[in-house]
């Protein structure tokens, strides 16, 4: 079964993913923790890595069933066809979401260089470095049209 990109209402990604899981669908909604500051306090908040998007593994004939879930808006289309995300890119997102990264090796990386993501503890084979700043680098996921920021230790 292919992975499709489901567009959600703003700020509804985590709720939609949870409801879809409860209905028996396989869902990928990677998150990150960021610190938000209000006038009186700071708080760690879990936010989705892909805003207003949830990746769902569903058969073609069952695609319309996801709209029974409140917050699901539509599928993302590309050139008149539903956008399909390759399994290896979904696996990268799952790995980033679940893995505590450890130092495996130390290498100098440069912009435009293809890097082996296994060095970051991920199962995907290669990614292209878009930008490097201090101890962070941005890796391009071509088919999704997104860039993921990784911490270099």
Automatic annotation (TrEMBL):
Question: SUPFAM superfamilies recorded for this chain?
Answer: N-utilization substance G protein NusG, N-terminal domain
Q: Which Pfam families match?
A: NusG
Name-wise, this protein is UpxY family transcription antiterminator
Start and end residues of each NusG-like N-terminal domain: 2-92
Keywords tagged on the record: Transcription
In terms of superkingdom, the source organism counts as Bacteria
Q: Which InterPro entries match?
A: NGN-like_dom, NGN_dom_sf
